[in-house]
Amino acid sequence: MPANRLSRLMPARLCLPAFLSAAGLFLAAAGPTTPAPGPVQIIGNSGGGCIQGAVRLPDDAPGLQTVRVGKSNFWGHPDTIDRLLQLARTASAAGLPDLYMGDLSNPRGGPMPGGHVSHQMGIDADVYLDINPHPRLPVAARENLEPPSLVRPDGRAVDQSRWRPEHATLLRMATQLPGVDRVLVNAAIKKQLCTTVSGERGWLRMIRPWYGHASHMHISFLCPAGQAECPPRPAPPPPGDGCDASLQWWFDRLDAPPKPAPPVTKPPRPPALPAACIAMLKAP
């Protein structure tokens, strides 16, 4: 699939250029540690936005545990938090172990460390795909947890020694949450679903391949109702189950010779943020 066509099908906020990673690291480290007071309001867009009135996902709730609290942020729009709590309860009722929750957003949104370009508006969440039995641990004991990759080192398929039908169950549950835009996973995970899911397959449309995402899924929600300054997504996932040439494109890229990195001629430039977001991130 041509890159320009792909960019229309995938959310732009998931690209990971190095200069945004550096800018995110600086802004997140210097940003406030409390949410902006006032009614809930999302401002900006996926490549440069913020949120007022965010709430925090609990570190412990029925069916979930946050992990790596010292390296992650767990703030989001109230609807996002409610839906993650719903996912955890549904997964627990189905017999799955506690879900390990990764990054949501900073307390006021904005750029984040670690290469994220998304996660700026409180409507994105990383949920690890570790469904091995694990006990409920104290928060400090989860600081260095590294859930395993489900993908073989060559990137062409999942590791069959780790893949279980329950992974498909959890991914299907995520696509059925209210207000989901799409769920991003590694292309090898999408390929495994295409190969093994039988019966009703309509939910596969919401599972989209993206770089990385070998150990977690990225749940992207639509803008909540009443958020006039939260722009709609460029396009919904295309019709069909996505088990077509658009998926094969990801594996064809593995055979392409790597392109040399362009020379660095200018210093990194931070992402453009709306003036209201800059003021919000600078406020005490």
Notes on the protein architecture:
The chain is built from 7 helices and 11 strands. With 284 residues, the protein is of the alpha+beta class. The chain has a single domain (3-258, 268-282), classed as 2-Layer Sandwich (Muramoyl-pentapeptide Carboxypeptidase, domain 2), CATH 3.30.1380. Strands 8-11-9-10 form a 4-stranded mixed sheet. The chain has a 3-stranded mixed sheet with strand order 4-5-7. A hairpin with a 2-residue loop joins strand 1 and strand 2 (48-52). The radius of gyration is 18 Å and the shape is globular. Mean pLDDT is 87; it is low at 1-30.
Keywords for this entry:
single chain; 284 residues; alpha+beta; Muramoyl-pentapeptide Carboxypeptidase, domain 2; four-stranded mixed beta sheet; three-stranded mixed beta sheet; 7 helices; 11 strands; globular; disordered N terminus
Total count of domains: 1
Distance between the termini: 46 Å
What is the name of the CATH class?
Alpha Beta
Number of strands: 11
Report the principal-axis shape.
globular
Into which percent range does the helicity of residues fall? 25-40%
Largest sheet: 4 strands, mixed
CATH topology (fold) name: Muramoyl-pentapeptide Carboxypeptidase, domain 2
Compute the CA-based radius of gyration: 18 Å
Q: In percent terms, what proportion of residues is strand?
A: 5-15%
Strand sequence of the main sheet, in spatial order?
A: 8-11-9-10
Low-confidence blocks of residues: 1-30
* Alpha-beta classification: alpha+beta
